[in-house]
Amino acid sequence: MKINGVSSDMTRHNQIERSLRESEERYRTLAESSLTGVYLIQEGRFRYVNPALASIFGYTVAEITDTLGPLDLTVPEDRLIAAENIRRRIDGEIQEIRYALRGLRKNGEIIYVEVHGRRLDYLGKPAVMGTLIDITERERAQKALRDSEERFRTLTETTSSIILIYQGEHMRYVNRAAEALLGYTRQEILAKTFWDVIYPDDQEMIRQRGLARQRGENVPPNIQVRVVTKHGEIRWVDFTAAMVEFEGKPAVLGTAFDITRRKQAEDAMRLQSTALNAAANAIVITDQDGTIQSVNPAFTTLTGYTASEAIGKNPRDLVKSGVQDTEFYRTMWKTLLANKVWRGEIVNRKKDGSLYTEDQTITPVTGGNGVITNFIAIKEDVTDRKNAEQTVRESESRLSAFLEATLDGVVVEHDDRVVFANKAFAKMYGYADPAELAGKHISELQSDEDIVRMTEYARRRERGESAPTRYEFRGKHKDGSLIDLEVSVSVFQIAGKFHIISIVRDISDRKLAEKQIREQAELLDNASDGILVRNLENQILFWNKGAERMYGWRRDEVLGRTVSEFLYPDSTDKFPELRKEILNSGDWEGEVEHKTKSGEIITVRTHWTLMRDQGGNPQSILSVNTDITEKKSFEAHVLRTQRLESLGTLAGGIAHDLNNVLAPILLSFEAIKRKISGDQRTLQLLSVAEASATRGKNIIAQILTFARGIEGAQGPIQLKHLLGECEQIIKETFPKSIMLEAAIPKNLWPISGDATQIHQVLMNLCVNARDAMPQGGTMRLAASNLHLDQEFVSMRVGAQTGPHVLLEVSDTGVGIPKENLDRIFDPFFTTKEVGKGTGLGLSTIHTIVRGHGGFVDVNSRVGLGTTFRVYLPATAGAGQEDAGRPEERFPQGNGEMILIVDDEASIRDITSETLQMFNYRIVTAENGVEAVAQLAKYKDELDLVLMDLMMPVMDGPAAMRAMRRIKPDIRIIASSGIVPGEGSGESDIDVQAFLEKPYAAERLLNVIHGVLTKHK
Description:
32 helices, five-stranded antiparallel β-sheet, alpha+beta
């Protein structure tokens, strides 16, 4: 027994040794092939190094192993650090360490290495084993980078140029010159964006240059822009930008030079030059001898000589006329040489030989020593003024005669008193002689209510302020009566004193006529009809308030325009073709279609009447328009409903008879098949006949639905669920060229009816919308709650007041022609190709909706699309059940955070929405990988995970195992359509509960509540 025991022990010992040798062999193979240095240190010597480590120090493995120690491969200055780190690991103070030091190669070269090692027992003694990598190139690169940065900072901080670096819009570096220019500290600048210091008017220019550079356009590298200092001062800089890398990311290096003084000097020179060139008077600059050195453009305009023709010449050789004698010029030069300014009038000669008179001022210019260096002559052409003075003298007598002959009153006032009045003005106020008005205060000629206003106008004119120059007022007649007047006022000076001249006209007759017209217009504006007057050129002359209400166009928007510009939808007015009839008969009445400002087409009953002037000639046309759109729509709706009811009765009778005909035929097929079971050809023909008969039966069923409706299971319907199903079917089966827009509120009122039939209504409408967009487009599926009032119901046959749910299906397709709109609900009417439609879809929809107490409206424009609106009565108490829903029986959360993981977006969304309603916080993920990432992110906040078991990328069980490693106590609820243990292969998953799909909100909330409370 003992021998057997020894044998067993030896066998186990051999197995251990063999496993150890195999493990060491695998480790040695891995170490020998590694590019990283591997070492084992014991008792101060290398007991093992791999080839990579030997190569790093320039030795062979044999030269190092058992011969050299780690200090032999370390520079003397770093040996103390190396020895201490080895000692601490050997003594057990630390188990593992990573540090860098300088190594010493065999050839004496110094290198940088990074050492990593940990303590272990080797052959019963403590040792250190680890790895070593050469980081020499990295250290050299970092040193070069530090040196480069130091040189950059030294350069930027000592230069007078402004240097800045910004990434995106944020400042990352500025030098001292930038601080000095902007007045901010460096910290204040770095807290700002690039645009904070750029003058607002220059920012768009900089952005446009950046966009042009991105487009590859050739943009100069520098730009002159303005910056704003801390104290609000605007400075000019010459700015140059270049792309650089800063802290590993792209950035912009900008350099700038302060050019404010240069810009100011340039602006001053440009201003002086502009002023000189823009001066209306001719300017000539000569030297001390009178030789012309410079002239402005006005000199050329005045004399006809260009600058090149004048410079270098003496004025006497160009413009001297000989009219002035020698004494005149002697006196002029005597004044100038005495360093005094000379002023006077001179008659000179132009280049073309004509004479002109100029008012000239010559000013001497002296140098620093007081000696005259130049003369500046400013010349103003006063020829016209001199001629005008003569003309004025000649016209004064004519003006006096005009003032006495004119029918308008003319009055001149000074200091609010009459200085002059003509006969017409005196007669206007009831005075026989104008002399009676002289000296009267102007307020005596104004009504009491106008005195304050007109006095204020006079004061403003005296102060040089703006005041009305043409206005109406009421004057006070000599007998005390008031007269309506219109005045035009001008201000002028005589001997430096302000005078006011007023031209006054009696407008009493016109005001009376305007009053009558205004009273008539008020009567027309109170009319509900649209009343307008247009001339024979079709231009609007009058537009009443009724027309504004009917068409939406304000009076000021249409006066002077032709009606064809805005009233006729096809841009062709029928006025030209009706003009002859109007001129012959004098009036016309009929129905037309007009377009409102909003683009709506309305039907109008219009009556035109020809208006004539006093001579009996045609002058304009008066139109009285009545909007009959709603009336026409109501009539059409009534006719359509009556026709559908008649067709339904007829279709029901026909369908009933056809069913009686088809019933024995369908019942005979099976018997016939049994009798001729051996004749395959006959059986095949019989199958074709049976299929056709069955199709006929289905068509008859649709006809019966149209005729009397289909009785189905009646009950409350939550339309949001049906709409959600339709939305899902559209997304999965309709062409991708059709984009769906869904607007389905969560609080839709319930209706009572057959869910299958309502689903058929929705799908038929969606399919029709799809077929209307063969090239693609946008389909809109929407629903809303609304209350129908009595006014709405009175315009809709078959409608009833109360709460309704409105379903809308819209498309942007081909539209329905107007001539087909009245027939679309007729049975067997279809515009589709043969074999692609029976024509019963819309008639069936109409019957189903009518059977549910609702009605259908349709709007369509050719080329713009179609909208079907289905109105369905809501159940009694609609709109109130949400407030009374017994949600208190569902357990509420306390703000716990739940992670929902499911690859179906619809399941994630509805589950999230439900849980948020019951006071839970939600995060979501669409696969296992995202779920693990979310758990890591919200590790300390997450209370529970609700996870689907079958997902792409990483399935549920794999994700759960990863989550347990991150947070072992995380509570998990699994969910799947396959119960674990029934073929899923996942019956051993570690979860707190399982939810079988599909699940209701009550089940979901109760399971979550149970897990959270049980496992707290």
